[in-house]
Structure formats: C-alpha cells, structure tokens
Amino acid sequence: MKVILLQPVRGLGQTGQTVQVRDGFARNYLMPNKIAIPASSGSARAADHQKRIVDSRLVQEKKKAEEDAVRLSSVSCTIERHVGEDEKLFGSVTARDIAQALTAEGFNLDHHQVALEEPIKQLGVYQVDVKLVQGVESKVKVWVVAK
Questions:
Q1: Which residue, among 141, 115, 132, has the nearest Cα to 64 in the 3D structure?
Q2: To the nearest whole percent, how much of the chain has pLDDT over 70?
Q3: Whose CB has fewer CB within 10 Å in the chain, the N or C terminal residue?
C-alpha cells in the first residue's frame, strides 16, 4: 500500500514522502496513529499543505532557538552541593540539575536538551553543551561550588 507520511518515521521516510509499506503496517499502525494517510491525488495536496505548515513552523522555531542560543552563551549558572574530602561532592550534578538551574534563570529547557556525557562529581567550572533544536547548540558555563 502506498501512503504519504505526515510525520518523520525512522527507517521509513520524512514528512510528505510517499512510501510503499505493507498493508497491515499501514492499517494497524501508521493510519490509526495519524502518522500517514493513504496516497491519492487529494491526499497528496493535503499532505503538501501540511508539510508547508510544518516547514514554516520549523523555521520559526529555529529562529527563536538561535536567539535563545545567543542568550544562553552569555549565561552562567551556579549549583551548590555539599562537599567531602578532596572537594568531592556528596552525590553529583546531573543534566536535570543543570536544566532546573537554567529554568530558574528564565529558560524553558528539558533535561534531555542538556548534553552532559557523565555527571559532574567535583567542584569547578564546566562548559556544558545545550542542544535547543536540530542544528542549534549553545554552551553554558556551570559553576559547581561548595555549600
């Protein structure tokens, strides 16, 4: 069955593409979840219209994300933690902690957007990547200080 994708599907295609899939996959998964519609001339026009709307929304989101990236690059956040011997932290500073600190600074971020390879376990100043949208990243200075 030929369907037009309304959303990107990993391993299948992007929004607006016409793809050939098995009938059961289309009937039981793609169409009930509103991920695809059957391919026809009318649905192709509707899918093109939907794609133009999505593309314009993505352009606006990317523009806003670029503005936020500039603001984020000038921000530093301070996180206080209890410290033991050799300046080792009791616990650690995670991406969730950094996202909460940035939210307190006025940014609307999810902890999944903070690219922290492993939790921070010592005092110091760290440069942490924040991924806003696809292709837009910024660095934030994080100060981990003793309480």
A1: 132
A2: 100
A3: C
Whole-structure pTM value: 0.66
CATH number of 2-63: 3.40.5.10
Query: What token pair was written down for 39?
Result: 């391919």
* CB-CB neighbours of 30 under 10 Å: 23
CA angle 1, 29, 8 (to 5 degrees): 80
* Sequence spans of domains, the chain: 2-63, 69-146
Beta-strand pair 76-81/136-146:
parallel
- Token readout for 111 is 């902890």
In 46-113, at which residue ranges do the beta strands (DSSP E only) sit? 76-81, 88-93
CATH fold group of domain 69-146: Ribosomal Protein L9; domain 2 (3.10.430)
